[in-house]
UniProtKB/TrEMBL annotation:
InterPro entries registered for this protein in UniProt: TMTC_O-mannosyltransferase (IPR052384), TPR-like_helical_dom_sf (IPR011990), TPR_rpt (IPR019734), UCP035836 (IPR014596)
The protein's name: Tetratricopeptide repeat protein
The keyword Coiled coil appears for this protein: no
One Pfam family named in its UniProt record: TPR_19
Gene3D superfamilies named among the record's database cross-references: Tetratricopeptide repeat domain
Keyword list, A-Z: Plasmid, Signal, TPR repeat
Organism from which the protein derives: Peteryoungia algae
TPR repeat windows: 143-176
Entry-linked SMART domains: TPR
Superkingdom as given in the UniProt entry: Bacteria
Signal peptide interval: 1-31
Amino acid sequence: MRMQNPGSANRLQIMATAGLMVAALALTGCASGKKELTTGSIPKTTRSLDALSGSELTRAVDGIGQAYERNPKDRNTGLSYANGLMMTGRNAQALAVMQQVAISHPSDREVLSALGKAQAAAGQLEKALGTILRAQTPDRPDWRLYSAEGAVLDQLGRSSEARSRYRMALQIQPNDPSVLSNLGMSHVLSGDLKTAETYLRQASQQPGADSRVRQNLALVVGLQGRFQEAEQLASQELDPQQAAANLQYLRGMLAQQNSWKQLSSQDMPKKKG
């Protein structure tokens, strides 16, 4: 499906950019890359930041911030604090934290990765690209860095290069849901919603696919006019708070496209005269 209207294309670009997962970078040194708060002086929890509700996330980030104030040079605390800040929308503060952590750990690959993520979240895309490239090592390439590089390239309008990076990431980490989701949202940028849906469905079926992947799939389905199906996809979370957040995300994004009322009316069963 190719979008012909320039205004629609611009709104699609905004939506796809919002759905790209620069957050695929590892942030804590864990082999799995999960953002667990379980080490050092960081307040402990058995749940990752992604699994917390809004109020829980705010409390967790405040606790990490207190640990950061006590020891701003601690690598893991700084990484977790910056990640939490970005998850709560405080991108400028997250970048300031990562800049401080990078001063203390200038050669640390994960620190550079997280700095690149923070720069991208703060809108410093060219700087983010340079930082991510500096963190990558050709002899030991990191698939998360390839995916993050692709996400930044997509935001810079260099989609062909971005997709090559996603494919390089998938060669190392086949069927990773975050990379497949990024590849799908890359096709949203060019208005190819059917191809985007194919990749996003594949992503959503992978073990480890999180709420963001399902949000992106619901969005692309909704943009094609299948609104009830999109709403059902957005609601498929075990946690009612997560389901509500997904629906809010879907409605907000579709409202940017002026599609909410239109798609809703299209999917409503017609009354027989």
